[in-house]
Amino acid sequence: MSVAEKKARVIQPDSLIGKRIPKMDAPEKASGKTRYIHDINLSGQLHGKILRSERIHALIKSIDTSAAKALPGVHVVITAADVPDQRPIGVARDHFPLKVGRVRSERDEIAAVAAETEEIAEAALKLIKVVYEDLPVISNPEDAIKPGAALIHPEPHGADGSHEHLKQGTTIAHKGKPDNVAMTFDYAHGDVVRGEAESDVVLEDTFKLHYVTHCCMGVSGMIAEFDASGNLLMYSNTQVPFLHKREFAEYLNMDPARIRIIQPPIGGGFGSKLDIYPFEVICLYLARAAKRPVKMLFTREEEFLASPTRQPVLLTLRSGCKKDGTLTFRQVHTLHDNGAYTSWGATTPFVMMQTFSSLYRVPHCDYHTAAVYTNNPYAGSFRGYGNLQATFAIEQHMDMLAEKIGMDPLAFRLKNAQDAGETTGQGMSFKSCGFKDCLTTAATRSDYSRKVQENVANRDKPGNIKRGVGMASMLHVGGGAKIYPSDGCGTILKMDDFANVTLITGASEIGQGSETVLSQLVCEELGLPMSAITVVNNDTAITPWDVGVHASRTTFIAGNSAIGAAKKAKTKILAVAAKKYDCAESDLDLRGGFVIKAGSGEVVVELSKLLRNLHFQDKAELVMTTFYYEPPSVHQDKGFKGDVSAAYAWGTQVVEVEVDTDTGTVRMTKVTGAHDVGRVLNRLGIEGQIEGGVVMGQGYALTEDLMIENGVMKNPNFRDYKLVTAPEIPEMDISFIESMDGEGPQGAKGVGEAPSICIAAATANAIANATGVRMFELPFTPERVYRTLHGQTPKLYWKPWKAE
Amino acid sequence: MNELKHYLAPTSLDQAVECLKDGDVTILAGGTDLTPQSQAGRVKIKHTLMNIRHIPQLSGITLEGKEIRIGTLATITEIMAHPLVRQHLPVLVDACNHFASDQIRNAATLGGNICNASPAGDTLIPLLVLDASVELASMPEAKLYRHSMPLSTFFVGPGKTRRSLCELVTCVRIPLPAEGHVARFHKLGTRPALDISTISIGIAGTLKEGILSNVRVAFGAVAPTPVRASQTEKALEGQRLDEATIEKAAAVARDEVKPIDDVRASAWYRKEMIHNITKRILSHVAQA
Q1: Closest chain B residue to A787 measured between Cα atoms?
Q2: Does the pLDDT at position A176 exceed 90?
Q3: Alpha-carbon distance B30 to A446, whole Å?
Q4: Collapsing DSSP states into helix, strand and coil, what is residue A243?
Q5: Cβ distance B207 to B180 under 8 Å?
């Protein structure tokens, strides 16, 4: 090549943003090569199994483990008595991993075994003899708050009845509770009395939300090993490794610095792995006692019994509007079934109150939650975090209010929808806001308003199939959520001599596609192809701190962090190139693996060559940068007010159904969604995330139901717990509203939780449109719908109640 | 834990029934019921596990005189695809089309579905209305002995049949339907695939000039076994399929069944569905 030709080489501008980029882990997963925790075995490893309670609520009178200990192949058998330093775990520290004196729910852990094989461990469990004394079971939260109700966490008393009350400041697990109220939340802005006085129409209805669970395809598991110096290594599928490092240290009374967590590829998270569960701590106890690595994996039945659930809620909503369609107030009381112990489910009001206070303009809002102990399973965090429940009530009331004042439901929503620049009563500030675009796009693309009219007109015509269309919108955090002291994420970026990048990020990949989108953002900055990047994201000894995968935050927070590190690398590279080629840094850019002239795209030097020159010289240097991104959000004040997220995501979904009035079967035929995602980064990834979320919402609305009767789970299996299957998945038409958020990475906002939130609410509205009948309780199984259509469902009413 | 000590895989029917003589044998065909049930502890695998899949006499779908013979090892997938079944027994194909999922249909056998004797077994309802009989083989002395019994008398309770422990179901025989034969099947569940019936209904008969005769009605998931509905059959036999007959038959059907409440539905809903779906099927037949 002649010098002239070489000089003429020009790299055309290109961008990775908005492209359809396959997930980086897809080939491994599709070919079955991914090594999940199930596939990892350490030499010398033992297998741990847990003995769970045979009773729902009972005193443990005695436990005899002698026969289990004597079984050949058994190394360790432990009960609470063998772990005197046991500390209570969980959000309220009300939960001992191995139960002390009392079981409170079906999943309760009595004893654990570590043995040579799983079969031996199973056989040993059968040899453990437990004597119980039954206590009254509370399985209805309304019973739990009745005066004189049996206490789930009573203050401890000695054998002679004397009080064993421990000193102030101890946890519930130690000092007990005088009632069954686990947590309360009270929020208000404005004056609901005034709001109601200004209303032309007021509605009050009770809504009932049921138990569902995450159903991760990969069951829960953990491998724990203490090395010869007492350092702990865990293979764990946690979504929050850095928070858990600290928390595990507390539970084991050890230095957090000596704990390392490696996260193998995960078979599903969806929020289920945000808390520490007894099995994890028990696995550590076993490893500590056995002085061998211990692996513990759930069976599918255990996964149902001992995983967290979505928070079940009983909710009474009172809301009003004026004749002109202006919303006036919302007053909300909820009763959360806390289950026997407290996990993140109890804190879903953090999100629920945001929806009640700020989804549409609400001048006056009053919100109260009591989460009460029962002997039921306990709820954790689950994609949407209370927002599905809140939206279910709000969006039904939006349709009902519109009907009362004779206003088109879309026009009613548009009248109350916010614009960019508004700040809500709770202090959430909408810097970018595509809410109205979401509403109009979803309505137009689905032909919503015409169908609403047409379906009403067709309702009384002959035939058992009635068509319905329903709409719901959602508001969710889209730029992290400042709950912990930091909502940040760290990045270490390393470039090698061949211009390949290693992106070391604190952000965990849980199947949502974060490593792909983070790589894309880095490659976009550095002008590199996707093939030039390797991601390291699963080892607390290597990766910088991150608060964890939750709150739809990873693309936004870890994305900004990755961009920050990439920008620093770019600055350094361009400075070196400018010096070497005697030009201004601003005249240069990175593109296609080359340093180029910014204006013309002409190649200046191959990037890898420049990096080698930098490295192999007298004053050798490498390009390695770090960046920590902390979003400009604030913590809420004591009244739960404050701009808690750096950005907010919006979405509207229109659901179309066919209701068979002969059977009550609801077929979801189409979902038209419009989501304000800020900007589409990986189109393939975001489509997949939306479609998956819609199906999760569909299961919540129609088929999934974890049935609990007197504290007993009736269907801990996939035969009777009905996930949506392929033939039921509706046609989908998804649009993206690109509001280009000023703080978001390349303008993007978080969307991970968004697509599940509206489906149940929109389905309820669609059924009402089809049949004229309102459904206030989930799920819409054929029998429940049929009963309601035939007037066999008494009107639900829960009298608002507030804990003192 | 199971007490499994021996695994046998006989290659002839004689060998198989010989092995069954001592009775302490669990029979494995497709394994789609046996595996989950034994893992869940609902079925205990006995001392001997006998895999019958290598016995050629138990396979195949053939026309024998005026009967279609379906070997006990025929898989649901094979049955659905077989020209004889497709031509003469479309109602069985329809039921197979609602059976679990493709993966399970590839492994599950007809004999297994029958011997599992679930009140909700998907193939049992069409087989009942098609007057199917089961053939059983045993070796009481040194010689192979076969006998048949109508499927309608075969089921005793959930998971229980009149097959004795030393017998093997070898095949199902179904008489070729006569001219004018109509048969319909409907399965109702929470979802269209991979589901256990809330209820299922089969109705068959000969329709000539609007009159239904030789009526067979069977219901699934409303009793401890799949059942024939004799009162409903009586209400339809020899009747013209007009609106009054259909409504009456549907009402008789609703009163005839005695279902229970379980995780899938309440007894009330099941009775309602027996009424509504019976009515729907009969209306479709009348209009066809």
Answers
A1: B269
A2: no
A3: 46
A4: helix
A5: yes
Closest residue in A to B273 (Cα–Cα): A663
Question: How many Å apart are CA A96 and CA A92, to the nearest integer?
Answer: 11
Q: How close B89 comes to chain A (CA, Å)?
A: 25
Q: Give the Cα separation of A352 and A80 in Å (integer).
A: 37
Architecture of domain A3-33+488-629: 2-Layer Sandwich (3.30)
With an 8 Å Cβ cutoff, is A119 touching chain B? yes
Q: Does A715 reach chain B within 8 Å, measured CB to CB?
A: yes
CB distance from A781 to chain B under 8 Å? yes
- What value does the mean pLDDT take over residues A615-632? 96
Q: In this model, does residue A712 exceed pLDDT 80?
A: yes
Q: Which residues of A touch B269 (CB under 8 A)?
A: 782-783, 786-787
Q: B237 CA to chain A: closest CA distance, Å?
A: 25
What is the three-class DSSP state of B194? coil
What is the DSSP code (8-state) at residue A541?
Answer: T
| Number of structural domains chain B divides into | 3
Q: Read off the pLDDT of each residue in A274-294 and give the average, rounded to a whole number.
A: 98
Mind listing the pLDDT tens digit for each residue in A395-437?
999 999 999 999 999 999 999 999 999 999 999 999 999 999 9
The answer to whether A157 and A164 have CB atoms below 8 angstroms apart is yes
**Cβ atoms A225, A42 nearer than 8 A:** yes
Count the Cβ atoms, other than its own, within 10 Å of residue A61.
10
**β pairing state of B199-208 and B181-188:** antiparallel
Q: Does residue A157 surpass a pLDDT of 70?
A: no
Tell me the shortest Cα–Cα distance from A117 to chain B, in angstroms.
Answer: 14
Chain A residue numbers touching B260 (CB-CB < 8 A): none
Check residue A56 and give its pLDDT.
Answer: 98
**Reduced to 3 states, what is the DSSP secondary structure of residue B136?**
strand
Contact A783 B192 (CB under 8 A): no
Strands A294-297, A46-52: pairing kind: parallel
Please give, rounded to a whole number of angstroms, the shortest distance from the CA of A470 to a CA of chain B: 21
Whether A227 has its CB under 8 Å from any CB of chain B: the answer is no
* A782 at B interface, C-beta within 8 A: yes
Task: For chain A, give the number of residues.
Answer: 804
Is the residue at B206 inside a domain?
Answer: yes
Can you spell out the DSSP letters for chain B? -----EEE--SSHHHHHHHHTT--EEEESS-TTHHHHHHTTSS---SEEEE-TT-GGG--EEEETTEEEEETT-BHHHHHH-HHHHHH-HHHHHHHTTSS-HHHHHH-BHHHHHHHT-TT-TTHHHHHHTT-EEEEEE-SSSS-EEEEEEGGGTEEETTEES--TT-EEEEEEEEPPPTTEEEEEEEE-SSSSS---SEEEEEEEEEETTEEEEEEEEEESSSSS-EE-HHHHHHHTTEE--HHHHHHHHHHHHHH------SS--HHHHHHHHHHHHHHHHHHHHH-
Contacts of A464 in chain B (CB under 8 A): 280
Same topology for domains A3-33+488-629 and A215-306, yes or no?
yes
User: Is residue A82 predicted with pLDDT exceeding 70?
Assistant: yes
For residue A526, give the nearest of A557, A582, A496, A571 by alpha carbon.
A571
User: Which tokens in the block code for residue A746?
Assistant: 């390349």
Q: Which residue of A has its CA nearest to B264?
A: A720
Interface A-B, measured as beta-carbon pairs within 8 A, has a size of 53
Question: Does pLDDT of B1 surpass 50?
Answer: no
CB atoms within 10 A of CB A498: 12
Question: Domain A215-306 maps to which CATH number in 3.30.70.20, 3.40.1000.20, 3.50.50.60, 3.30.365.10?
Answer: 3.30.365.10
Task: Note whether A786 contacts B269, CB cutoff 8 Å.
Answer: yes
